């Protein structure tokens, strides 16, 4: 997935609006925040407040949402950040929700009032406070009487969003500001810091983009000048160039919380520190917030680019690996071993027709890979072979007992 990102200064630290967000990826000013310690264990208090006119829904299930919130940051940080979350009892503020929400001029007052009401809690005992208020977030409702989610030292987050959108993505988005990520980076559906926080109807927000993970010390890029990669998943993030201007290349795949990003492949970021950044789609289509034409190779099939003189990225498509199994079918009354004609050090896994792993072929030091099935039924089995270069081959084995 190739995307070029150029970095620049803004001041809003609010959730992206479904109504006022640009309809395409563009340049955007961003500000930096004070970076928190981003590894280890963080204690987070969800301070619940409701208003004289707006109460929490009687069936609100915060435990599940908070559990998903904790799971999200465990996944995107690759286990480097652990969150211990606590939610308070419900406190009632004297003012109406519309009092705080109108024009968003009294959000700081909401923060002060919420803290002042929780007199029985030692708020200083937590790394971060997330003020969880009753009602809907204005970022999805477009109702001036609602409260726009934002970060003001404390995170201001809603109980729910409009149109049955889960508030999880907005919660994760605002917490990222606390960690030190700038406002709403213009990366569309590819990043938590843009409308990617609404992926999967808000319940499966996109990962933080590779640049943000780098700045949070969750990844350590491997430096290089010219990069050639096979089209297969890798946890390594690559940096081309150094200093003020450089490029990051990472693998993105539709799984886990990233299940609703637009596609799979390598995503590239063009970074110009303290200046500006933008996303550069592989298909040169700027009229959307992310689609299947953005990745490398994506729907365009593009697989190479020259970032700058001396900095190149080439994507190699794995070849189809030719692997034969014999004897095939395998009659266990006559033979107990199936051999595979595959390159040395290949990985070969055997599955039943339900997709369940039933065995792996081993190198028996006789120059061939072999599988000795035990306690399996007669039938057809599928093998998947992969050599050290990432080339794959597939086949069927019949087993007779």
- CA distance, first residue to last residue: 47 Å
- Helix-strand makeup class: alpha/beta
Unreliable segments of 5+ consecutive residues: 1-12, 20-33
- Continuous helix count: 6
Shape: elongated
Please describe what this structure looks like.
- The chain has 6 helices and 21 strands.
- The chain has 401 residues and is α/β, with parallel strands linked by helices.
- The protein folds into 3 domains: 40-179; 213-316, no CATH class; 324-400, Immunoglobulin-like, CATH 2.60.40.
- The strands form 5 sheets. Strands 2-1-3-5-4 form a 5-stranded mixed beta sheet, with helices on both faces. A 5-stranded mixed beta sheet has the order 14-21-20-16-17, with no helix packed on it.
- The relative contact order is 0.14.
Mind sketching the topology for me?
Elements: E1 40-50, H1 62-76, E2 81-92, H2 97-101, H3 107-117, E3 128-136, H4 138-141, E4 150-152, E5 154-160, H5 168-179, H6 210-215, E6 222-224, E7 226-230, E8 238-240, E9 245-252, E10 265-272, E11 304-308, E12 311-316, E13 324-326, E14 330-331, E15 338-341, E16 347-351, E17 357-360, E18 362-363, E19 369-371, E20 379-386, E21 392-400
Parallel strand pairs: 1-2, 1-3, 3-5, 6-8, 7-12, 14-21
Antiparallel strand pairs: 4-5, 8-9, 9-10, 11-12, 13-15, 15-19, 16-17, 16-20, 18-19, 20-21
